[in-house]
Amino acid sequence: MNPATSLPPRSVSRAFADEGPRFAEIEAKVHQGQRLDYEDGVFLMHARDVHRLGRIANEERERRHGNDAFFVVNRHLNPSNFCIYTCKFCAFAKKAGDPGGYRMSLEQVRQMARDEFEPDLREVHIVGGIDPKLPYEYYVDLLRVIKEEKPEIHLKAYTMIEVEWLARIGKRSVDAVLDDLLDAGLGSCPGGGVEVLSDRVHQELFPGKLTADDWLATARAVQSRGIPMNATMLYGHIETPEELVRHMVRIRELQDETGGFLTFIPLAFHPANTELSHLPGPTGILDIRTIAVSRLMVDNIDHLKTYWIMHGLGVAQVALRYGADDMDGTVVEEKITHDAGADSPLGVTRDELIRLIREAGREPVERDTTYTQRFPVPS
Ligand code: V47
């Protein structure tokens, strides 16, 4: 027999021939614009031919965004690391008396905005611990202080965990909290705090924090006020592939209802200095698989972010060819992942992001937070 004639079609690996028919079904659905179902997602989370999965995700990514790869010139601000919650995956949170605990005064925030914010900064990403010592007014005034110093900067501030906490300590409805935050300059909300929408994982890793239903209800309230937000998904710890697919489906269901999510962001768990430090953390293949499956399953959120702080710069470059279209930003000073052992840099320059994106064969596009404006990048 001529070995050449017995080869499977080009780029379909012989080693994974048993997966061929199922992949072909999924490919046909994607090409026809049909929604993948939960079982499709579970198949893809287990499929051995990650390259074929990536090729389908990449086609879908290029259909939506061509060769563009987005980034934002931003920085992170974590006003306090004191937190009432004890989440097993977290190395950032401190209790009173712990070494390394800090809380910024509003005057320190003002000084930082005045003296340290870069001239081309477009976004500040603000998230902190649930600090029992900070009053309601601090959260509102913190936004106001930054806006007084730098009115043009977009404030992406406070997860659903913080929004719900503010309603509690402020003795107000979530809607009234949002009124105050909007009045002080809130532009959008980051997607953290959701972790995995699974009661089992919630019970095991972050009991006491918002349940899946409560996170979704708070997100619904935020989005129905017209506030754009993101959704994250923390993977690579004790969750099962099925739980990740269920998370994607639940986020997608809310997006069908509201349309308010801008970006979906899979976050790679870092175990060091956490109660889960015995776990190995995600592998490169799980990173790439999760990106690709997210692109295909979360079909109604336009953007998919590879958060290079957690993926590392190398995996983030590869992710841009496996479904991701956004590399987040310059970040400047990251604490949550670096407290948990990340070996990525604390931040990168705009020029470095542009270089990394170009090296991945993509066209860098500097964006604002909501993807409504694009800014020229040097050629
Ligand atoms: O909610 C905590 C996660 C999140 C660890 O909206 C950990 O644009 C890995 O939400 N290993 C905060 N992850 C970060 C976040 C985020 C990041 C970038 C962009 C956006 C956005 C949002 O980090 C937390 C939690 O899920 N996290 N500890 C850890 N050890």
For the record, the CATH class is Alpha Beta
Provide the CATH superfamily: Aldolase class I
CATH topology name, in short, is TIM Barrel
Helix percentage: 40-55%
Query: What is the CATH architecture descriptor?
Result: Alpha-Beta Barrel
Class based on secondary structure composition and strand pairing: alpha/beta
Low-confidence stretches: none
Counting structural domains, the number is 1
Distance between the termini: 53 Å
Strand proportion:
5-15%
Hetero groups in this structure are: ligand V47
Order of helices and strands: HHHEEHEHEHHEHHEHEHEHHEHEE
Placed side by side, the strands forming the largest sheet appear as 9-1-10-11
Task: Characterize the largest beta sheet: strand count, sense, and whether it forms a barrel.
Answer: 4 strands, mixed
The number of helices is: 14
How would you explain this protein's 3D organization?
The protein is an alpha/beta fold and 379 residues long. The chain has a single domain (64-366), classed as TIM Barrel (Alpha-Beta Barrel). It is 41% helix and 13% strand. It has helices spanning 20-31, 38-46, 50-65, 106-115, 136-149, 160-169, 174-184, 199-205, 212-224, 241-258, 284-297, 308-311, 313-319, 350-359; strands spanning 68-72, 74-77, 123-126, 154-157, 186-188, 229-235, 261-268, 303-304, 326-329, 363-367, 374-375. The strands form 3 sheets. Strands 9-1-10-11 form a 4-stranded mixed β-sheet, with helices on one face. Helix 1 runs parallel beside helix 3 (50-65), helix 2 (38-46) crosses helix 10 and helix 3 (50-65) crosses helix 11. The termini are far apart. The mean pLDDT is 96. Ligand V47 binds at residues 89-91, 190-193, 195, 230, 232, 234, 265, 267, 269-270, 274, 307, 310, 328, 336-337, 340.
